[in-house]
Write a structure and sequence with these properties.
Elements lengths: L3 H23 L9 H12 L4 E3 H6 L5 H13 L3 E6 L2 E9 L1 H21 L5 H16 L7
Length: 148
């Protein structure tokens, strides 16, 4: 294992950087038609074939609990941003589909939000970005193991 102090320092730096960057780009949603959570739902749904994703796939991409995602999706149904129906292939599941209004609202924010992210990340060159992507993917794929 790497030096424990170095690992802790790197973790704290990663955590603080993520928090600060997230706070900066969250400003893209202030006063907009979508909340950041609604945008995240629509990001998953609009990228899926026919703009339709299983609710469990939406939940897997969110950083909130399954019941919270379900309530959020139900509110979005009420706002006309998505539809929700039973999954014909799995009656226990649900399918979420972006409506035209939902897709339009997503697209209207996506371009500006992408620009905001790119500007915030512009302090890194392409090699840095590839390295960061590789490191974060390895962290996400790694399994936890106890360190004595």
């Amino acid at each position: 294992m790497a030096d424990r102090r170095l690992a802790i320092a790197a973790w704290e730096s990663l955590f603080r950087a993520q928090h600060e960057v997230f706070e900066d780009v969250s400003n893209d949603f202030v006063g907009g038609d979508l909340s950041q959570a609604e945008y995240d739902v629509l990001l998953t749904v609009t990228r899926a074939p026919d703009m339709t994703a299983r609710l469990r796939d939406v939940t897997a991409n969110m950083l909130i609990s399954q019941p919270s995602v379900s309530r959020l999706v139900d509110r979005m149904v009420g706002r006309g941003l998505v539809t929700k129906c039973s999954d014909p292939d799995d009656g226990r599941g649900a399918l979420v589909t972006a409506t035209e209004d939902g897709a339009r609202a997503f697209r209207s924010i996506a371009a500006a939000h992408g620009k905001s992210i790119a500007e915030r990340m512009s302090c890194l060159d392409d090699d840095d970005l590839r390295t960061l992507l590789d490191i974060t993917e390895r962290l996400r794929a790694g399994s936890y193991r106890s360190v004595d």
